[in-house]
Amino acid sequence: MFTKILVANRGEIACRVIKTARKMGIATVAVYSDADRDAVHVEMADEAVHIGPSPAAESYLVPERIIAACKATGAEAVHPGYGFLSERASFCEALEKEGIVFIGPKPRAIRAMGDKIESKKFANAAKVSTVPGWLGVIENAVHAEKIAGEIGYPVMIKASAGGGGKGMRIAWSKAEVRDGFDRARSEAKSSFGDDRVFIEKFVVDPRHIEIQVLADAHGNALYLGERECSIQRRNQKIVEEAPSPFIDAKTRKAMGEQSVALAKAVDYESAGTVEFIVDSQKNFYFLEMNTRLQVEHPVTELVTGIDLVEQMIRIAAGEKLAIKQSDVKLNGWAVESRLYAEDPYRNFLPSIGRLTRYRPPEEGRFGDLVVRNDTGVTEGSEISMFYDPMVAKLCTWAPTRLAAIDAMSEALDSFVVDGIEHNMPFLAALMQHPRWREGLISTAFISEEYPDGFAPIVPDSEEKAVLAAIATAVELLRRDRLDRLGGRLAPHSGVLKRDWVVKIGKDYRSASVIEGMISIPMELGLSIDGGKALTVASDWRPGDLIWRGTVGDRKIAAQIRPVPNGLRIAWKGMSVTARAMLPRTAELERLMPEKVAPDTSKMLLCPMPGLVVSIAVAEGQEVKAGETLAVVEAMKMENVLRAERDLTVSKLKARPGDSLAVDAVIMEFA
């Protein structure tokens, strides 16, 4: 077994690998760029080596610097994590020449399966079911249009060396093929240094289901069940689960055996994932094989009890698999939510900044539930524009699917992140969505259920009653605390004020204290709008970020943040401003004028922090609705900004190469 390994990655996956290595008694070496000098993975490792500037192309993607770090520290092996150099065969070969072990498959398998075009050719030859498509070189956009027409719309345009949703476009018409081809090639070249793309038939309403495989150097291979990865946005996975609510035992066995056969055909050694698209009749088609550890591997670990990173290390060290296919049992259900630094209210555009608060839920086993959080940040960490926007992977396990989903819902409500925009409200709302809870999903789920983007969930009458009860309980404690401050001229102490009005958004609800007294812990009887009394119980204290307790028979975990003259309460995807006040205050408050938002209709604002790639118009130019105005790159994704109506450009305020903050003015219109 190795005594020291180097982790050629950053963020949560670097931390994940270090944890297992530490458990196995193996020393670890971290590498870091300028941007990651104070990163969590650097602190966790036994040693750390600086490998260059912040851009990945000048640090994490430079094999020579990784090899030099191995030589300097005496690391015997390299674990690549995912992304970066994890699927670069030339990197494996360079390590082998230096006598350093690559913790992953051999170069032949990476070449055969890592390239999407070559992998499909190989799968066809091995009689694996594949999607109809064109696997040869596509010369230009005209050639792409011809191929798409022959295959039949819709088609998927994909980067051959791609991954993570980059370099992928769906085209429903000839016009979309041309634009999609150009964008896919541009993104592919920017992200992977390889602008080759291919085209295949797009299966409507498919599920994205993948099989986890393990194979050693002694001819042993097995599969560890499937993962359902259909909840995606722009081909980027958001939520995963294991097992799939759609796959039956017969289909699982067929997919698993085919995956193992494919792995054996390329002499695969290590953990790998065979991805399929599955139609409504459970017909499955080979999509690609990822010759590395997947982002979503924790859900497989939770339902099988098998540490995939440990298995990768043992296989790389030459050990035989200690488990057989008959040993693999799927126990319970696991769900993973990816916490991204992106604004769900701005069509999930990237966000960067410092984590002024980062308080994940407590990890561990709690009765029949397990909570796990794989992360590479801590409070004070900076989310940089240089790398992937994923902040953490929150996972829950329970004996049943709905119990795992409910555990995820509570864990999300208990996860405090401030300083950046993030997709937690969307994830929390998703956990309540009836279609998701029933397992009736496809890769089109988000576009179908949120065609106009994600908007804050509007609470119904019952939910408003819960929010009003929380706001009243918080206000009673706040006022009582103020009353106990010495030197106050006009304290509110005396008889408990029993009648209140709670403003939630623009709605006013009455709240009456029926019984109980102000204390910590608190237990009150409250009537909302004259309804049946609700028992409100909590040990919340002023200053706590999470209000935990019960309102009636509902167990609540809600985030509380003070705002001017009130509170912001976040709960189950809802985010409302609530203000509890005395009736006379409410009477006067209703008379206050509303502030009017400034008019920005004659400006193009940068929707995210990013780099201006190009400006497609000039001052004085007349533009038609739908035409491209500018292209902004954020976290390696190119975002095309188009005119929403016919207009004339009056002034350009930015130029290519400019780095802009969110809402910075790019241009003005007449």
From TrEMBL:
<keyword id="KW-0479">Metal-binding</keyword>
<dbReference type="Pfam" id="PF02785">
    <property type="entry name" value="Biotin_carb_C"/>
</dbReference>
<dbReference type="GO" id="GO:0016042">
    <property type="term" value="P:lipid catabolic process"/>
</dbReference>
<keyword id="KW-0460">Magnesium</keyword>
<dbReference type="GO" id="GO:0004658">
    <property type="term" value="F:propionyl-CoA carboxylase activity"/>
</dbReference>
<keyword id="KW-0067">ATP-binding</keyword>
<dbReference type="InterPro" id="IPR005482">
    <property type="entry name" value="Biotin_COase_C"/>
</dbReference>
<dbReference type="Pfam" id="PF00289">
    <property type="entry name" value="Biotin_carb_N"/>
</dbReference>
<feature type="domain" description="Biotin carboxylation">
    <location>
        <begin position="1"/>
        <end position="451"/>
    </location>
</feature>
<dbReference type="Pfam" id="PF02786">
    <property type="entry name" value="CPSase_L_D2"/>
</dbReference>
<dbReference type="Pfam" id="PF18140">
    <property type="entry name" value="PCC_BT"/>
</dbReference>
<dbReference type="InterPro" id="IPR041265">
    <property type="entry name" value="PCC_BT"/>
</dbReference>
<keyword id="KW-0443">Lipid metabolism</keyword>
<dbReference type="InterPro" id="IPR011764">
    <property type="entry name" value="Biotin_carboxylation_dom"/>
</dbReference>
<keyword id="KW-0464">Manganese</keyword>
<dbReference type="InterPro" id="IPR011053">
    <property type="entry name" value="Single_hybrid_motif"/>
</dbReference>
<dbReference type="GO" id="GO:0005524">
    <property type="term" value="F:ATP binding"/>
</dbReference>
<dbReference type="InterPro" id="IPR005481">
    <property type="entry name" value="BC-like_N"/>
</dbReference>
<dbReference type="InterPro" id="IPR000089">
    <property type="entry name" value="Biotin_lipoyl"/>
</dbReference>
<keyword id="KW-0436">Ligase</keyword>
<feature type="domain" description="Lipoyl-binding">
    <location>
        <begin position="594"/>
        <end position="670"/>
    </location>
</feature>
<dbReference type="InterPro" id="IPR016185">
    <property type="entry name" value="PreATP-grasp_dom_sf"/>
</dbReference>
<dbReference type="InterPro" id="IPR011054">
    <property type="entry name" value="Rudment_hybrid_motif"/>
</dbReference>
<dbReference type="Pfam" id="PF00364">
    <property type="entry name" value="Biotin_lipoyl"/>
</dbReference>
<feature type="domain" description="ATP-grasp">
    <location>
        <begin position="120"/>
        <end position="317"/>
    </location>
</feature>
<keyword id="KW-0442">Lipid degradation</keyword>
<dbReference type="InterPro" id="IPR011761">
    <property type="entry name" value="ATP-grasp"/>
</dbReference>
<protein>
    <recommendedName>
        <fullName>propionyl-CoA carboxylase</fullName>
        <ecNumber>6.4.1.3</ecNumber>
    </recommendedName>
</protein>
<dbReference type="InterPro" id="IPR050856">
    <property type="entry name" value="Biotin_carboxylase_complex"/>
</dbReference>
<keyword id="KW-0547">Nucleotide-binding</keyword>
<dbReference type="InterPro" id="IPR001882">
    <property type="entry name" value="Biotin_BS"/>
</dbReference>
<comment type="pathway">
    <text>Metabolic intermediate metabolism; propanoyl-CoA degradation; succinyl-CoA from propanoyl-CoA: step 1/3.</text>
</comment>
<dbReference type="GO" id="GO:0046872">
    <property type="term" value="F:metal ion binding"/>
</dbReference>
<dbReference type="InterPro" id="IPR005479">
    <property type="entry name" value="CPAse_ATP-bd"/>
</dbReference>
<keyword id="KW-0092">Biotin</keyword>
